[in-house]
User: Which sequence fits this backbone?
C-alpha cells in the first residue's frame, strides 16, 4: 500500500505524519519503506521540516532527517492507494485536481475515525464506511501550527501520533 499525506506547506504536519507512520509501522513489524510520502498544496519546495515540528517529531519517535518538501500533483494522488489530508479543504483540493482518487482520499481524522468505528482493514471497506459513519462534528481538521507557539506544535504532534496509531490496523493487512 502506498500512502500519501497532504498538508499546506509540506514542512510540518504531512511530513510529521509521514515519518511517524514509518516509525510506528516499523515498530509493529510493518515495512512501509518507500511507500509513504507527503506533499503540500502550497509546498515550500525543497525545504527541510520546520525546526519546531522536527523537534516534536523526534521526541515522538520519528526521524526528520533527509526530508525535502514537495508540491502536490494529481499524479501523486493517482499513484497512492490511500491519500490522507490534514484538512477538509485540502481533501477538496486533492479531489478537484484528482477526482478519480475519491474512494481513497480522506482527511486523516476521518480515516482514523472510520477505522476505529468499523475495524476496516482495507481502503475499500474504509470508503464504504463513509456512507454509514458520518462525522458528528465538523470540520475534521488537524490544526496548522505554523507561526504559533511551541505548545501548539506539541499538541499537533500528539494528535498526529494518536491518529497514526489509530490507522495502523488498516496497514497491518498490507
Assistant:
Amino acid at each position: 500500500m502506498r500512502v500519501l499525506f497532504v498538508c499546506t506547506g509540506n514542512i510540518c504536519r504531512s511530513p510529521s505524519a509521514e515519518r511517524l507512520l514509518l516509525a510506528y509501522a516499523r515498530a509493529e513489524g510493518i515495512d512501509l519503506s518507500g511507500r509513504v510520502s507527503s506533499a503540500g498544496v502550497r509546498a515550500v519546495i525543497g525545504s527541510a521540516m520546520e525546526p519546531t515540528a522536527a523537534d516534536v517529531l523526534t521526541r515522538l519517535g520519528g526521524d526528520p532527517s533527509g526530508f525535502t518538501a514537495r508540491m502536490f500533483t494529481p499524479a501523486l494522488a493517482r499513484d497512492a492507494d490511500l491519500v490522507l489530508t490534514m484538512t477538509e479543504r485540502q481533501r477538496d483540493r486533492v479531489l478537484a485536481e484528482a477526482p478519480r482518487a475519491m474512494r481513497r482520499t480522506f482527511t486523516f481524522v476521518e480515516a482514523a475515525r472510520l477505522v476505529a468505528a468499523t475495524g476496516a482493514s482495507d481502503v475499500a471497506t474504509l470508503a464504504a464506511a463513509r456512507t454509514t459513519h458520518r462525522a458528528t462534528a465538523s470540520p475534521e481538521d488537524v490544526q496548522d501550527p505554523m507561526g504559533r507557539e511551541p505548545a501548539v506544535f506539541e499538541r499537533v504532534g500528539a494528535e498526529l501520533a494518536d491518529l497514526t496509531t489509530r490507522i495502523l490496523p488498516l496497514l497491518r493487512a498490507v
Summary: The longest strand covers residues 3-7.
